[in-house]
Design goal:
Layout lengths: L2 H22 L1 H31 L3 H29 L9 H14 L3 E4 L4 E5 L3 E3 L2 E4 L1 E6 L12 E5 L11 E3 L2 E2 L2 E2 L5 H9 L3 H12 L17 E2 L6 E2 L5 E3 L4 E3 L4 E3 L6 E3 L3 E3 L6 E3 L3 E3 L6 E3 L3 E2 L2 E2 H23 L1
Antiparallel strand pairs: 1-2, 2-5, 3-4, 5-6, 7-8, 8-9, 10-11, 12-13, 14-15, 16-17, 18-19, 20-21
Helix pairs in contact: 1-4, 2-3, 5-6
Length: about 325
């Protein structure tokens, strides 16, 4: 037996052992996912109760906060249901023979030029050609299948998509591809096909499916869209900014850079220059929600410079007038 044959036989045995363990874990994992779904439904009932309380008191901000919690639970429920369907869609898959797996490994070497078999780490990897999506160069990726984790397919992803010449999104260094975050691929509609290929040790199909997803852009579900890959454009000046240097204006609900935004000295909310201004009395920057019109002179001032809807200047004039009237009355009485 030559060196290459011994190496492929070693990997074939590792794959078969992992698939045997995977096959025996199918129904315990099904039971575990049913328990997860039951807990998520309890979380949904809790979120429903919170929303009901918020609406009964007309607390709209609290209702908005509840919406975020509901979305998170719905996403988890959707993932759990998808997993349950995958675990119950058919009877247990028969573990492939060593001959079949060995033959599949031979075909991998023939079909792909850049295959890597790492016995020390028990991984099989494919290096893709450089990937470009809509003029954004993302570089080549290594699709690395971890044979030790293949037996955990029903609860964990046993492979990584590693950017070899990373050009990550400006807003998130962990996103190296619109559909890859922290080396994890968002499989989308390819999830069932990938799982089936790995269950049956159809490794050529597995690598081809993942490679196809990496070479495809879906604008419906990216971690970061390609149009925002270089950053978010400031709504005012148009310069590109990353998420850490973005300022969200609560008045117009748009993103701005630090040069085009400030904060209201009255309510401390972030505000763009167009949605606020300086109080003519104290010269502090305030948002439009913290500006009031003086009932006497009709000028706008910040809330801190107003008393009973009257600005400080008009208040002083009122007090002077009252004092004058009072003195005149005293003079008339004395006379």
């Amino acid at each position: 037996m030559d060196k290459e044959t011994r190496s492929l036989t070693y990997f074939a045995n590792k794959i078969q052992d992992s698939l045997i363990k995977l096959n025996s874990s199918r129904y315990p994992e099904l039971l575990s996912q049913m328990g997860n779904l039951a807990e998520l439904l309890k979380d949904m009932a809790s979120e429903s109760k919170k929303l009901s309380i918020a609406l009964s008191h007309n607390w709209l901000l609290a209702a908005d906060s509840c919406s975020g919690g509901i979305i998170r639970v719905v996403d988890d429920v959707s993932y759990c249901i998808t997993t349950l369907k995958q675990l119950t869609d058919k009877t247990a898959v028969e573990v492939p023979s060593l001959f079949f797996i060995f033959d599949e490994l031979k075909h991998l070497e023939q079909e792909f030029d850049q295959m890597e078999f790492n016995k020390a780490e028990n991984t099989i990897s494919l290096v893709t050609d450089p990937i470009t999506l809509e003029d954004v160069d993302l570089g080549p990726f290594k699709i690395q299948l971890d044979l030790k984790k293949l037996s955990e397919l029903y609860k964990n992803t046993p492979y990584h998509c590693i950017a070899l010449e990373p050009n990550p999104a400006a807003t998130n260094d962990e996103v190296t591809h619109p559909h890859v975050s922290n080396e994890r691929l968002c499989e989308g509609d390819g999830s069932a096909a990938i799982r089936s290929a790995l269950e049956q040790a159809r490794l050529g199909d597995f690598f081809n499916i993942v490679k196809s997803i990496l070479n495809t852009y879906s604008p419906d579900s990216p971690y970061v869209s390609l149009e925002d890959w270089s950053g978010i454009a400031c709504y005012d000046c148009g310069c590109m900014i990353d998420s850490e240097n973005t300022f969200y204006c609560h008045s117009c609900e748009r993103d701005f850079c630090d040069n085009c935004a400030s904060y209201c000295r009255s309510c401390d909310e972030t505000c763009c220059m167009g949605c606020g201004g300086n109080c003519p009395n104290c010269d502090e920057f305030v948002c439009r929600n913290c500006i009031k019109t003086c009932s006497e002179c009709g000028e706008n001032f910040c809330k801190l410079c107003m008393e009973d809807d009257v600005c400080e200047n008009c208040k002083e004039q009122q007090e002077e007038s009252e004092n004058t009237d009072e003195n005149e009355n005293k003079f008339k009485i004395a006379g």
